[in-house]
Amino acid sequence: MSNLILIRHGESLWNKLNLFTGWVDVPLSEKGVKEALNAGELLKYWRIDVIFTSELVRAIQTAMLVMSKNYSGIPKIEHENGMMKEWSLIYGEDGERYVPTYKSWHLNERYYGQLQGLNKDKAKKIYGEEQVLLWRRSYDVAPPGGESLKDTAKRTIPYFRGKIMPELERDKNVLVSAHGNSLRSIVMHIEGLTKEEVLKLNIPTGVPLIYEYQAGKLKRMGYLYEWGYDKSLHIK
Ligand SMILES: O=C(O)[C@@H](CO)OP(=O)(O)O
């Protein structure tokens, strides 16, 4: 048996300002740092064997803050190619335990196109609430110049199947630190949600969502809080 731990990054400086963020590389707010540390506290004694994050700093920060509390080992970023890969190899024997950490744009937030940088309430005033809700939560309506959730899934799901699932199959506990919509596409896939169901799916910042992997199946344990699991998927 192994565990899949999904976590949306803590609040970012642009979440706080209520701006469409997408691929804009914004760091965590002070509250976001606290959320990530709190998640780390909850996961303190969990064995984490491998980490996947997006290429965006808010997800990387969140994973590192979680690991700053964790005893599994030191997260070591595994670069895929070039000098970063070649020159970051370890040749000595220092006896440390390392947790391989992979960064990939496949896990990045949905690309929000021309909405990036726009205030979400201002967008509602300009385009109407209904239109903005479709851009933000529907499955196949893309924001102007950006990705629909369906488009996002075209990059997240092959990565999930090709890189993340094989680790679970090898009994590795996996931490995935990513974003509201990249995680919505992954949860939609795992849970087999319909287009209508995914409209209601909102993933809270900085709360670990735990799955158990056994015999080829992922079973949801729920969102992990101080007091235990919230088994519902749609957190109010
Ligand atoms: O701005 C964004 O990139 C995302 C996540 O914060 O926003 P939304 O909740 O609208 O999908």
Report on the architecture of this protein:
It is a single chain. This protein is of the alpha/beta class and about 240 residues long. It has one domain: Phosphoglycerate mutase-like (Rossmann fold), CATH 3.40.50.1240. Helix content is about 35%, strand content about 20%. It has helices at about 15, 30-40, 55-65, 80-85, 120-125, 130-135, 150-170, 180-190, 195-200, and strands spanning about 1-10, 50-55, 75, 100-105, 175-180, 210-215, 215-225, 230. Strands 3-4-2-5-1-6-7-8 form an eight-stranded mixed beta sheet, with helices on both faces. Helix 5 crosses helix 6 (about 130-135) and helix 7 (about 150-170) packs across helix 8. The longest helix is centred in the last third of the chain and has 21 residues, at about 150-170. The two termini are about 30 Å apart. About 35% of the residues are buried. 2-phosphoglyceric acid (2PG) binds near residues 15, 21, 136 and 180. Pathway: Carbohydrate degradation; glycolysis; pyruvate from D-glyceraldehyde 3-phosphate: step 3/5. It is an enzyme of class 5 (isomerase). Its EC number is 5.4.2.11. One of its GO terms (molecular function) is phosphoglycerate mutase activity.
Using brief descriptors, characterize the structure shown:
Rossmann fold, about 20% strand, binds 2-phosphoglyceric acid, EC 5.4.2.11, isomerase, 2,3-bisphosphoglycerate-dependent phosphoglycerate mutase, gluconeogenesis
